[in-house]
Protein: tRNA glutamyl-Q(34) synthetase GluQRS
Organism: Dialister pneumosintes
Amino acid sequence: MKIRTRFAPSPTGYLHIGNIWVAFLNWLFTRQNRGSIILRIEDIDGERSKLEYIKALKEDLEWLGLDWDEGPGFTYSYGSTIQSERLGLYKSLIHKWGNNGDAYPCYCTRARIHKIASAPHRGEQLPIYDGYCRNTLTTIDEKHKIKPSWRFKIKEKETVSFSDIFHKKQYYNLMPNRDDFVIMRADGMVAYQLAVSYDDGAMDITHVFRGEDLLSSTFYQIKLLKELGYQLPVYGHLPLLVDKEGIRLSKRQKGITIRSLRNSGITVNDIIGKLLFWAGAISKPEKISLCYAKNNISFNECHNLTKKTISI
Ligand code: GLU
Ligand code: ZN
């Protein structure tokens, strides 16, 4: 089996060290296993995504030497790797599911959803739903007033499980109503869960490396991948990098973007050495070239990857 992985940044800002942590480990694993890396631009959020950031992230990856095999501009047989150019594919799925009853329109206001679930769901931003619109035939009048979001319908209780490379066996019971998750927002924006699942399946991705914060999203994505009849990838959820106060780096990204590090004189080899040190592959931070890492430091020597967070 040919290994295929993806690095899937959202172009809503400059790449920071947390993004590169994921990109580098994905790169190391893939290059050592002679696989292909797909650079997928996750720009379905048209308001926040900017062309300038796509250009910048390619520059930053190139500066670091983290190359890819398929990406914007060269894609072989898988179609575009830019999600905004794949919207028709996602929308036709939503249409199909809407017609055959696998998805239903939800007219609930944000305020109502917040009222039923002020507590976040499994530490994530997916709110609990009570199925209000699932069984209610909404009146035409209501339909004229507001546009619905669309929810994927969980037909019956189902235990979804997967074995994460670093976190071992994971289980979750998907429940009707509660877990009917949004696949398209009321403003027409396709939901991350749908786009990412469809693309991981359609692009034959075999291994997904990403941050631990997405661990609980995986259950919904597996549900969709199965629905679509795709082979499931292997998942590896990586520990999040946090600062000394335990705050996720992405929240404080200004000072640690790759461009700001480069401008302050830090070299690529400094960065690669740091990443390998945090991963537990070397005992003290030292300058290491990407080429040396690829040839001499096995991905399996990254002993810290079973942690939840890494304080830097
Ligand atoms: N586009 C997502 C992000 O930047 C990545 C999602 C994923 O790897 O599944 O957070
Ligand atoms: Zn509803």
Q: What stands out?
A: The CA atoms of residues 11 and 49 lie 5 Å apart.
